[in-house]
Amino acid sequence: MKTVTLIGKPGCHLCDDAREIIRRVCEETGAAWEEKDINQDPELYQKYWEQIPVTLVDGAQHDFWRVDPERLRKALGG
Questions:
Q1: Domain range spanning residue 17?
Q2: pLDDT in tens, 8-35
Q3: What pTM did the predictor assign?
Q4: For residue 67, what are the contacts with CB-CB under 8 A and spacing of at least 6?
Q5: What is the tally of structural domains in the chain?
Q6: Dihedral through CA 10, CA 12, CA 15, CA 17, nearest 10?
């Protein structure tokens, strides 16, 4: 099973949009997903601050700023 990770922060409208797309696509494909707050992890903050929201699939960067549901679905094999 693949895992999608959303890296974002509270109060980010793009993160809210990404969360909804990720949740829906993961439900459709059976993939797991998790969310990490960039403010709680100095390494993530340094690496991704200017790109949030960032989407990872199995730990590899997949997208940033906006999540394309079709592209994510394909990456998850759906």
A1: 3-75
A2: 999 999 999 999 999 999 999 999 999 9
A3: 0.94
A4: 17, 18, 21, 22, 53, 55
A5: 1
A6: 120
